[in-house]
Amino acid sequence: MGYYEEIPGFEYWNVEAWKKYIRDYIGPIYSTTKTLLELKDYLERYVGKSLKAVKEDDERVLKFFVGGINESGNYTERSLAKLIRLMYGIYVEPTEFVSAVEAVGEEGLEGVEVLKEKEESGFLKLIEKLNDLSSGVLEKSGTKVEVTPTSEILTSPNKLLDVLKELYEASVSFSVPYNPYTFFILTTNDAHWRALKSMYTKLPEVFEKLSDLLGLEPIFIPPVDSEKLRKEYTIWSHKIGGIANRIYKMQTTLWVYFSFHDYWYFRKVAERTLEVFKFITPSPEDLLITYAKTVKEALKDWQEIEKVPNEFKEAIKPGRIGTNYYILILRGSIITKIHYEAGSRNSRDYKGEFSLLRLLDILAPPLLLGNVKIMPTNKNPNALIYYKGIFEGGDEEISSNIYYFFWVVSNNVKDPERWF
After folding, report:
1. Which of helix, strand or coil describes residue 397?
2. Of the candidates 138, 245, 268, 378, which lies 20 to 30 Å from 213 by C-alpha distance?
3. What is the pTM of this model?
4. Within 10 Å of residue 345's Cβ, how many Cβ atoms?
């Protein structure tokens, strides 16, 4: 029996256990994002209207636009109006509101309009993506969950913080490395059968029913005569739109929007998420860096890369930022060249001969952890894309690698929807 068979509560071979995982970990993400999106839709009805019209239509809504604006026309630290602006981009100008009320009292509400920012906030993008992906998982698994009605939050705004706290806790507990089921999904995205069955020893006896439930399919079958070798080294991934595919994309979405360190791309998309979750916890967790640390610890003693021939080692070994994307040129199952393309001045070919099957064995640990990827290219049937060191380097390098990986997948990979 392997290590993963001994983790308490982790029964990857049990279909009912997967349904429980979906109910207990996907369900809360769906229900909280659904509640938040319904609240957004309700508040959005008032965009373009005056605060007087808001009060006359539903006085409960007024505090969501002006609650916590002080006499100086600033948001207080835990202002409800500030939170709504951070979440949805819906707001009134604080100074305009204060000036209007100071000038003519409640009649000034007539001249204060509810506005909406032109650019959708990163937090809103996060909950939209999570809601779409999680709803598909629930639908395909036949799982039903309860959703907090918008009316409860309108009547008692403090419940909004409860929903945000539940969303934050659900997102963290869903994520790798905290959840072995989500980790299983990660490992089945772009790994070969020989590696998978060595990691999960009960997998061969349940693979067919798990594959049907989660939606797994081969993306690369090595061109070798031996049927046994073809099966052993077939690379598996997730069917587009299937349960596993959606769960995997939930995880990558959380890596992007829960990435709170100072790298320009993630600072831009995740800044609002950080500010929103600071309403319920002083130090929201950077889920991307948490997993990167797990990968580094797991691979700290990995020395198999030294078995790669010297002529290919520089290209294959996970390394520094900016040299992560390579093309493996194949003759049958033999790698004859590794090509690195980075503009006319930096293109480089590494030439030699090495068995792709042997390379897959060597790379099994980082493949299973998602630190390297081997994927079909959309341009050449006799080539594979090799992306190395996704979780290598310092915080900024890891962020840059993820961002660059997005670009590689979007522009060079067959069926990019499998990955993002």
Report:
1. helix
2. 378
3. 0.94
4. 5
